[in-house]
Design a protein that fits this description.
Elements (H helix, E strand, L loop, with lengths): L9 E7 L2 E6 L9 H9 L4 E7 L4 E6 L6 H13 L2 H13 L13 H21 L16 H23 L5 H14 L3 H33 L5 E7 L2 E6 L8 E4 L8 E12 L1 H4 L5 E3 L4 E2 L4 E13 L5 H10 L7 H28 L2 H9 L3 H21 L2 E3 L2 H8 L3 E4 L1 H5 L5 E7 L6 H12 L5 H13 L10 E3 L3 E6 L6 E6 L1 H6 L8 H9 L3 E7 L2 E9 L6 H10 L4 E5 L4 H10 L4 E3 L4 H13 L4 E5 L5 H6 L2 E5 L5 H6 L2 E3 L6 H35 L5 H20 L10
Parallel strand pairs: 13-20, 13-22, 20-21, 22-23, 23-24
Antiparallel strand pairs: 1-2, 2-4, 3-4, 5-6, 5-7, 7-11, 8-9, 8-10, 8-11, 12-24, 14-19, 15-16, 16-17, 17-18, 18-19
Helix pairs in contact: 3-21, 4-5, 4-7, 5-6, 5-7, 6-7, 6-11, 7-12, 7-25, 10-11, 10-12, 11-25, 12-24, 12-25, 13-24, 15-16, 19-24, 24-25
Length: 735
């Protein structure tokens, strides 16, 4: 990981006897903790007083130990500030996010409306070029404007004229439409309606390409987010329930959820108890028991039991609704390079007016001066950048990747550190049988598993599902058995056989076995193997005798290691694992996946703090997760990525990018797309500046007439927009 621009770096400004002034970027972002830091430093016995300036980012320290080394004072300051590192970086991030002001948004009309404008403009242009009489006497004065041809031209140009004038009046600065308006009016005054119409025609073609791309992007996103109606069972009275759409549920309504059903609201249990799979919330696949008075969350699944829930979050508070709104507002999340393009192009507009004035003053030629007005850098830079990002977002959406703003495309292109959650991200979140040990020589491996299946057959617990899946794969027939008894958080038991020959089969935890006085001595060695492989052990007993041990674990996703290798090929030099799992489990998976570092046994807020620490050292951090437990980290990362079909709605909302498929290769795929997007934008910058500068030189010398200058300028704009459109065909490699 690169350690550039570390926020705690210190520089000594000057030092005199008993006083030193130190500069540090972090001091600007202490906020409300400024006084607290000052007081802490004053507690050091050799420090007399401290003054921190948030404006200059400096600290003045007065001390009485004159033999004190500068390095010691800097070390003391950095250690003190390190405690507030998270808050410092949060404040820095907030201030930076407000640095750009968007001058204006692109005009957004429907493609059909723009096509109508193009056809009308083309018709009028054709009339002026081929049918208008060349012998018509030039009109002067007010008659110059009071004719059908000129009035029609002005009517078509009205949106451009209106926006250009408004920018001058309201914003006190010209924009691209101001420049175009000047060129259009000048052309009309000179009786060159064809030049004005050419400017308008080519600009409309550029606008059509831009809007077409944006419309395609919106359509792709809507298709990806489309979901069927969600229905729930609403309690009308204690003995009456009715199936209604989730949209009809209001706060304080009571809904009933049964075994196998998904909970659709956030609320509290008022009746019943259930074993609930909260993997979508916690990231872990082990279900937990919930009873009256306990909170439950949307997206979790009732594995066993029946409960009544009083709804607390409904309607517009539903996560899907908020996600759709975020997508609609995604255009406000502009990339730095896009903001730069807008700012840079806006700053160049006055240059055209200055050049026009200089050319006219030196040549006394209105025609040559007009050439300076029909050529600008703004349109090409601004439109091609917007189209490039829109095309990239469209391509991502077609591959099942939701990107909430162009800024995240740019941030992805600069990825240095990629952080993975474990369960459901690196792993599948679906446990499978990994190892089997049999301790009774009279029983085969398949027979032992079949007996375990007899006890687990009716359970929807993830570990039971793993056993039943193994039985199905092996083609084992589950023996006939009696009613199954479930001991929540312990295990299950049943009887196999008839009459006096019936055997009690128990499957469950070590604690469950010991509670039933089952000797586990035979399983001691196998137990060690289970622990070393970070598997969960399911003990199988027949009557009072241990007969087997089944090791279950959550296997890595298919292609996850290939995805990690591709990330390194794209320049990611630091891959980290952050998980709430135990150290042994984290160490095992990190080793298998060749991950650089790992942190284990973390709470959600701990993951977020780790993200901020990486960022404070100058690293661009991408966080990949799937559950609500990952939401804080996803929010704090430069780019948060929610991965896979098992991701939670909360994770999807917190994330900046959502990958709806279970293919981890889409992660390096979208990073490759982002790098190609930024490369395309830089190509567009070079073409716009190069070709338009060439046209300005030819226009100033009189070699290029205004109408041809307009054609060259607008053709350049169309060229770079077309170059951006190639991103619609970008191939995101998924294998």
């Amino acid at each position: 990981m690169k350690n550039r621009n570390y926020i705690l770096d210190c520089e000594i400004v000057h030092r005199i006897h008993g006083r030193i002034r130190i500069k540090s970027k972090s001091l600007k972002y202490l906020g409300i903790y400024k006084k607290e830091v000052e007081e802490q430093l004053k507690q050091v016995h050799y420090i007399q007083s401290v003054e921190i300036s948030s404006i200059t980012g400096t600290i003045v320290i007065y001390f009485d130990d004159f033999s004190l080394l500068e390095e010691n004072l800097i070390s003391l300051l950095q250690n003190t500030l390190n405690v507030y590192l998270v808050e410092i970086y949060k404040n820095e991030k907030k201030i930076k996010s407000d640095k750009y002001v968007i001058e204006r948004k692109l005009q957004e009309e429907s493609p059909k409306e723009i096509v109508k404008k193009i056809l009308t403009t083309a018709g009028l242009l054709g009339y002026n070029l081929f049918f208008k009489s060349k012998s018509t006497v030039a009109l002067t004065g007010i008659r110059r404007f009071l004719n059908y041809n000129t009035l029609a031209t002005l009517a078509l140009a009205m949106p451009v004229l209106k926006n250009g004038i408004n920018s001058l009046v309201k914003n006190k600065r010209p924009n691209a439409d101001t420049l175009s308006s000047s060129a259009i009016i000048s052309s009309i005054l000179l009786g060159k309606e064809s030049a004005a119409l050419t400017i308008m025609f080519l600009e409309e073609v550029s606008e059509l390409l831009t809007v077409y791309t944006m419309e395609k992007t919106r359509g792709a996103i809507k298709d990806m987010l489309s979901v069927g109606e969600n229905y729930v069972w609403k309690e009308i009275s204690e003995d009456n329930v009715k199936r209604v759409p989730i949209e009809e549920i209001q706060k304080d309504d009571i809904i009933v959820v049964q075994t196998g059903e998904k909970i659709s609201v956030d609320g509290k249990i008022i009746r019943g108890e259930a074993l609930i799979d909260q993997s979508s919330i916690t990231g872990e696949y082990m279900p937990i028991k919930k009873s009256i008075g306990e909170d439950v969350y949307a997206g979790t699944i009732v594995k066993n039991g029946n409960i009544s829930i009083i709804a607390e979050k409904v309607g517009d508070d539903r996560t899907v609704s908020r996600i759709i709104k975020l997508v609609e507002d995604a255009n406000s999340n502009k990339a730095d390079i896009q903001n730069y393009a807008d700012t840079f192009s806006a700053q160049l507009i006055p240059l055209n007016f200055i050049l026009a004035g200089i050319v006219y003053a030196s040549t006394r030629s209105i025609t040559k001066a007009m050439s300076m007005l029909v050529i600008d850098y703004s349109c090409g830079i601004r439109l091609s950048t917007a189209v490039a990002f829109s095309a990239a977002i469209n391509t991502a959406a077609k591959n099942g990747i939701l990107v909430k703003g162009s800024n995240f495309i740019e941030e992805l292109s600069k990825a240095e550190t990629v952080i993975f959650d474990k369960t459901g991200t690196i792993t599948e979140g679906k446990p499978k049988v990994q190892s089997i040990e049999v301790f009774d020589n009279s029983i085969s491996e398949n027979e032992m598993i079949g007996l375990a299946g007899a006890a687990e057959e009716q359970s929807s617990h993830p570990l039971a599902t793993a056993i039943m899946s193994e039985i199905k794969d092996r083609g084992i027939e589950v023996p006939k058995h009696n009613k199954i008894k479930t001991v929540v958080s312990r295990g299950v038991e049943t009887k196999v056989g008839k009459g006096k020959e019936a055997k009690t089969i128990r499957v469950g935890s070590k604690k469950y076995m010991l509670e039933n006085n089952i000797d586990l001595t035979l399983a001691t060695e196998a137990e060690r193997g289970i622990i070393s492989r970070s598997e969960i052990g399911l003990y199988v007993a027949q009557d009072e005798k241990i007969i087997g041990l089944i090791g279950v674990s959550d296997p890595p996703r298919e292609n996850i290691k290939k995805a990690i290798n591709r990330l390194r090929n794209y320049g990611v030099d630091d891959i980290v694992l952050l998980t709430g799992d135990l150290r042994q489990q984290a160490e095992t998976i990190a080793s298998r996946m060749s991950i650089d570092r790992y942190e284990s046994e973390l709470l959600p807020e701990d993951k977020a703090k780790n993200i901020l620490k990486f960022q404070s050292k100058g690293s661009n951090v991408i966080m990949i997760g799937d559950g609500v437990n990952d939401a804080p980290a996803l929010s704090y990362a430069n780019v948060g990525v929610a991965l896979g079909s098992t991701r939670t709605d909360v994770a999807m909302e917190a994330a900046d990018i959502t990958i709806t498929q279970d293919n981890p290769l889409l992660v390096p795929g979208v990073i490759g797309l982002s790098k190609s997007t930024v490369k395309t934008i830089k190509e567009n910058f070079a073409m716009v500046i190069g070709l338009n500068t060439f046209a300005l030189v030819l226009g100033a010398t009189g070699i290029l007439a205004p109408i041809y200058a307009s054609v060259l300028h607008n053709s350049t704009t169309i060229l770079v927009v077309m170059n951006s459109l190639k991103l619609l065909k970008y191939d995101i490699k998924t294998n």
